[in-house]
Automatic annotation (TrEMBL):
Keywords: Repeat. Residues 3-154 form the PROP1-like PPR domain. This is PROP1-like PPR domain-containing protein. The keyword Protein biosynthesis does not apply.
Length: 159
């Protein structure tokens, strides 16, 4: 819970301190704790630290889940590191972790930050073609509209 408080406050140093205290107390971080720390790093623009935590997690034998990959993709998107965002997505798919709406929204946001309108709509098409078709929500549409505006294009208000 304390780690979540640090994450919400974007307190990078505090989050690492909490994790260190937990380890010193003999507690083993689980997927949720690692993911929270990764998310905190991403929100603070600490992409390298985010990947260090991810590698520590994997080396500790903790399997990442869709939320972990989503936090990595979101952190890359926030930092404008589109290639890394899609690289994480590729790893996630290779591990047979099915994406969720949050992952797709983060990828669309990453496309917007790089001016890749066509790629953003490709992500939308992939989102809809998932075996359990994922419908866009207000965040998806908002990210697409913002992408179009940033690139000086109009948003196609159909299907």
């Amino acid at each position: 819970m304390l780690l979540s408080v640090c994450a919400n406050a974007q307190d990078f140093d505090g989050a690492f301190e909490v994790m260190l205290l937990m380890k010193e107390a003999g507690l083993k971080p689980d997927c949720k704790l690692y993911t929270t720390l990764i998310s905190t790093c991403g929100k603070c623009g600490k992409v390298d630290a985010m990947f260090e935590v991810f590698h520590e997690m994997v080396n500790a034998g903790v399997d990442p889940n869709v939320n972990t990959y989503g936090a990595l993709i979101d952190g890359c998107a926030r930092a404008g590191q589109v290639a890394k965002a899609f690289g994480v997505y590729g790893i996630m798919r290779s591990k047979n972790v099915p994406p969720d709406r949050v992952v797709f929204n983060a990828l669309i946001t990453a496309c917007g930050r790089s001016g890749a309108v066509d790629r953003a709509f490709d992500v939308l098409a992939e989102m809809r073609s998932e075996p359990t078709s994922i419908d866009p929500d207000e965040f998806t549409i908002g990210a697409l509209v913002k992408t179009c505006i940033q690139c000086g294009q109009t948003f196609p208000f159909h299907g």
